[in-house]
Design goal:
Layout: H1 7-13, H2 16-57, H3 63-70, H4 79-95, H5 102-124, H6 128-156, H7 165-223
């Protein structure tokens, strides 16, 4: 009689340790895919908001009017808008303080925007370390399950006088599933992590470029008082 080598049967008949390894890897894969979809949506939105804000910013609108619009109670600013608000708020505060020279006004505004940039970078970086961890350790967790399963398969043959391939195959097959699941969890996580890091660098680069350009405008205003 041929052994049942169906995937469901192999998983069902696997040892507790191998089943636990499979459960951990499947859970990691599900969480990874959830983070992948969320992070992709977040980065697409961040790029879209940048396009919209930069178009309005360079349209010739008055900075004070733009600030008033974005600072309204019924408006929820996004990343680049928060950076602009932080810089212009600090610049306006310093500008109305007597005795503050133009250089100090601009420098304080730049520091305020850098602080806000770091906050946004920390937020955008969220979940990426998890993807990196899953991509790094999942193959090893799967390999552990495989080694454990193969070890149990050969141990069970200790009392058998004559071992056949049919006796060994099911145990080895169920053990190898753990490695397959480990790779299934790791590969998408690694690909997504590398892609997101590249896209995140581009978004942050746009934020930093905007800060530099905005500082130039503030310097002109500060010295033109």
């Amino acid at each position: 009689m041929n052994a049942d080598l169906s995937l469901f049967h192999l998983v069902k008949e696997a040892s507790f340790v191998v089943q636990l390894v499979m459960l951990i890897l499947v859970s990691a894969s599900v969480i990874s895919w959830t983070f992948i979809f969320l992070k992709n949506k977040e980065l697409v939105r961040a790029a879209s908001i940048c396009d919209e804000f930069e178009e309005e910013f360079w349209s010739g609108v008055e900075l004070a009017e733009l600030y008033k619009k974005l600072a309204a109670d019924d408006f929820e600013p996004e990343a680049i808008e928060k950076i602009f608000l932080a810089g212009y708020r600090e610049y306006s505060r310093m500008r109305h303080n007597a005795g503050k020279d133009p250089k100090a006004q601009v420098e304080n505004a730049q520091r305020a925007m850098r602080i806000e940039l770091n906050r946004e970078l920390e937020r955008l970086d969220e979940h990426l370390p998890f993807l990196a961890t899953v991509g790094s350790i999942s193959p090893y967790i799967g390999l552990f399950g495989t080694v454990w399963g193969i070890m149990n398969s050969f141990r069970s043959l200790g009392n058998v006088q004559q071992a056949t391939l049919a006796q060994v195959a099911p145990g080895i097959a169920e053990a190898l599933i753990a490695t397959a699941i480990g790779l299934f969890a790791a590969i998408p996580a690694v690909v997504a992590y590398n892609r997101f890091v590249t896209r995140l660098d581009r978004v942050v680069g746009r934020y930093e470029l905007f800060i530099d350009e905005f500082i130039v405008l503030l310097e002109r205003q500060a010295h033109g008082q």
